[in-house]
Task: structure prediction
Amino acid sequence: MYPELVYRRYVGGVWVEDALLHIPRRCYAPDEFAQVILDHDFRIIQRWGGYAGERYGEGPELVAQFSGPCHQKERDTCRTPPAAARRGTPML
Result:
C-alpha cells in the first residue's frame, strides 16, 4: 500500500509547484512489529492493541512504548521484553 501525499506550493495565491510523495505503508502482525523494535536494539516497556487499552494483538492498532537503544553491556537483557509486555499486559 502506497498512499500519495500531494504538496502544492502557492505564492500570492498562484500555484507555482507541487510534489507527489509515495509513502510506503507497512502492516505488521503483532509479533513481527515487536520484533522490528527489538531488532533495532530498543527495549519494549509497554504495548497495547489500541488507544482504548485493548490487549496487544486484539485491538485495531499496535501501540508500543519503547526506550533505548540498548547499550552493548546490557544487550542480552534488553532484547527480551518483560513477561508482562510479551503477554500484552500493560505494565504500570
In short: The CA atoms of residues 39 and 51 lie 24 Å apart. The radius of gyration is 19 Å. The chain is about 20% helix and 30% strand.
